[in-house]
Design goal:
By secondary structure, the chain is an all-alpha fold. Helices cover about 65% and strands about 0% of the residues. About 50% of the residues are buried.
Length: about 475
């Protein structure tokens, strides 16, 4: 019963945030267009009512949150909000599987879509899709921590939501730091929108795409995505903000607060991330120039934009990835498994895990050559314990297992291997566009496949353990 009350308490601020920052702007836009969506109005109304009920009943109740509570609250919050977020799509005529797929894709900042023609959607529905990604990017649980005063055990809840900055980048005053992080997220969103507007987007386009850029989501309001603009200045702005958003937000936060860039220079994960990006861009440009026979300017343009977009797991495209041949798209899809930095809203395995695996691997090679040598694995000057190494190896093993399970589900649905591989990778890495038959959208996928990939998106967003642990009977024992 206590756990249920904890979940209900968290859902209060979440429903308040979702109603006002996702439902309200979309509803007002529908009013402005003369076609008010009553369903969005109902969601806004009942979300407000529910949050008020929680405010006057459970707000002052003090709870002690355990790690188990954190996992349960996080999963239930994401699942229930995804169901609610799917309702407007169903009312618009989409099937339940398509609507749920679209909602989960937005909230997990994946960017895959089951809609084959975005032009049929009114502006308020297009903005609704973009705002889903923005809300999902900031992290629903972080919002709760920022809103609910004096949460006891808030770090445990936050650790179930994301990784990378819950322990070190956040100060002991968790609520104050969470609010500062939200302010930073708002500020960088407004800066991105302003930049898009300056280089040629309309106000509607700039805000819509800033929501999906900063959240590393990848949704666009056009069928041909960023290729619609055919504007290299716009593409450059997107590249800059994709890289900013793929970097640890805790690192941004601490560098701004302490007014020093030394934290970037001293952070091994950030340095390794820079190396991956630069090396991958170089390889992509060379492949496009020598293998696909594109001009150097086209190779540079597509190589930079598409590589950054896929590596950061954003998923914006200038042209369908199939149009760039087979080698370069497949190459950057493999690199996308590395993902963005910890503490960012990007997907993938996260850079720090891959960096740690490589460090451990090279240390073991050194031990083979020098058996008596004492090697200590360090990242950013801090010793990595054996328990951390075991956790990373376990994560990678389970990650691959989950990937293979979802891959086989798609193969059993009759999807060819190339398309199934890319679709599974796009879902579990929260990437978005696929290859093969999924290069444009996922409308051709069966209902079973859509539900499977929806679950894969949630698994990828919550980083496996947060979902897998719920299926162990021992987890539910006192």
């Amino acid at each position: 019963m206590t756990t249920l009350l904890k979940v209900l308490r968290f859902l209060g601020p979440i429903s308040l945030f979702f109603s006002f920052f996702v439902g309200l702007p979309s509803y007002l836009l529908s009013l402005y267009g003369g076609q008010a969506d009553s369903l969005l109005g109902y969601i806004l109304f009942w979300g407000l009512i529910y949050s008020l009920v929680i405010f006057f009943t459970l707000r002052r109740t003090k709870f002690n949150y355990t790690p188990r509570d954190g996992f349960i609250i996080t999963f239930v919050s994401w699942f229930l909000v995804s169901i609610i977020a799917a309702i407007p799509f169903i009312s618009f005529g989409m099937s339940p599987s398509d609507a749920f797929f679209e909602a989960v894709s937005g909230l997990t900042t994946t960017g895959s879509t089951s809609i084959s023609n975005l032009s049929i959607l009114p502006d308020y529905m297009l903005m609704y899709r973009q705002l889903l990604q923005w809300a999902g990017g900031v992290g629903l649980v972080i919002i709760v921590i920022a809103i609910i005063p004096a949460i006891s055990g808030g770090v445990k809840v936050l650790q179930a939501e994301t990784s990378g900055f819950a322990e070190k980048s956040f100060s002991p005053r968790l609520q104050e730091t969470a609010r500062s992080l939200l302010k930073f997220y708002l500020a960088i969103t407004l800066l991105c929108a302003l930049s898009y507007w300056i280089v040629g987007m309309t106000v509607f386009e700039s805000f819509a795409h800033s929501f999906s850029t900063v959240s590393i989501g990848g949704f666009s309001i056009y069928n041909d995505n960023f290729g619609h603009f055919n504007n290299q200045a716009i593409e450059l702005v997107a590249v800059v903000f994709m890289l900013l958003s793929a970097t640890n937000f805790g690192l941004h936060f601490i560098s701004i607060v302490r007014r020093s860039f030394k934290y970037y220079r001293e952070n091994d994960e950030f340095k390794f991330f820079k190396f991956i990006v630069i090396f991958s861009i170089l390889m992509s440009v060379l492949i496009l120039f020598f293998r696909e026979n594109l001009s150097f300017s086209e190779s540079l343009r597509y190589g930079v934009f598409q590589t950054v977009s896929i590596i950061t797991t954003t998923g914006f495209t200038l042209v369908p990835l199939n149009d760039l041949g087979t080698i370069m798209p497949f190459y950057i899809f493999i690199i996308s498994f590395i993902g963005a930095c910890s503490g960012s809203f990007g997907g993938g395995m996260k850079v720090w895990r891959v960096f740690m695996l490589l460090k451990v691997g090279f240390n073991n090679i050194t031990k083979l050559m020098h058996p008596n040598a004492i090697n200590i694995t360090k990242i950013s000057g801090e010793k990595v314990g054996s328990s951390q190494i075991e956790a990373v190896f376990s994560f990678v093993a389970i990650y691959i297992t989950f990937f293979l399970v979802f891959l086989f589900i798609l193969l059993f649905q009759g999807v060819d291997f190339y398309s199934a591989f890319s679709g599974t990778a796009a879902a579990i890495n929260n990437l978005g566009p696929g290859l093969g038959e999924f290069t444009h959208d996922y409308s051709a996928l069966s209902d079973v496949g859509k539900y499977a990939l929806s679950f894969a998106m949630i698994v990828g967003r919550l980083e496996l353990f947060g979902v897998l642990i719920l299926f162990f009977p021992s987890f539910w024992k006192n």
